[in-house]
Design a protein that fits this description.
The chain is mainly α. It has a single domain, classed as Na+/H+ antiporter like fold (Up-down Bundle), CATH 1.20.1530.20. Helix content is about 75%, strand content about 0%. The longest helix is centred in the C-terminal third of the chain and has 32 residues. The C terminus is likely disordered. This is Bile acid:sodium symporter family protein.
Length: about 325
Amino acid sequence: MARSRFLPDNFTLALVSTVALASFLPASGDAARFFEGLTTFAIGLLFFLHGAKLSREAILAGIMHWRLHLLVFACTFVLFPVLGFALKPVLSPLVTPDIYTGVLFLCVLPATVQSAIAFTSMARGNIPAAVCSASASTLLGVFVTPILVNLLVVPHSGGGAGSALDAIGRILMQLMLPFAVGHLMRPLIAGFMKKRAHVLKFVDQGSILLVVYTAFSAAVIEGLWKEVPLSALAGLIVVCVVLLALALTSTTWIARKLGFVKADEITIVFCGSKKSLASGIPMAKVLFASHAVGAIVLPLMLFHQIQLMVCAVLAQRYARRIEPIATAVPPLKRAG
């Protein structure tokens, strides 16, 4: 029997199990240091494999569609932060201050890549533009997110993440250097990567689970669950739903107002309204103190699941509503 689209996927269940494990059996002392080292290695390997996977053709595909890309970047790095701060007086009382700091961090993250492209494809949108926009958003986020964190998030959190240049430097060394090395080695290992695509998925999900375990272990030892009541978790669901609803509504309205065709509208909606768990959790590990990462990434983890469920339904609605792509190659006529 097929699983309902409204039920969590296996990875979400693994995330929940990892949080539960860290809550009851948090790593401390030598075990915590071991997991920290293992997590750093896993994240480096993850970005190395992503660099090897991303082709230059994918980067160049649709790159001339500059109006679409600028709009996606504006939604990702301007609209979301504006929503996060504009709604703070209304939404922050629903959660704790540390969790709303995580909401603000969520708002300055780059767009997700895999699911944005998958939903664009499902809805019959502009796939080359989605590949280009989502990939460029991830790369741009390496520089933009640390700056926004220092300008917008840290002053409201009472903590510190160092200077923007220091944060960018740490991300470049821990994330982008392995990515660049992987991309340079793509001609040598592309065949291996294609035959063993499951390896990337295993490293992708495994590295995130490791970061979640180490982050929540440190947070639990510092008293995370004593400071986060159930009412705050319920409030966080409301916050994530409101943010996603406003992002989806805004991107749709802006795309139509600016006269984009339906295929481009779909790309804008799915690339401009999503936030990356794969990039966000490693960035949080680099930018924030270990004991604070658990509360910081909690909104991102919840938002990730909600956006997957909502966008799955929305993509199917788009697929039913839009007309067949006009540029599709017509079927060959039989001779005779």
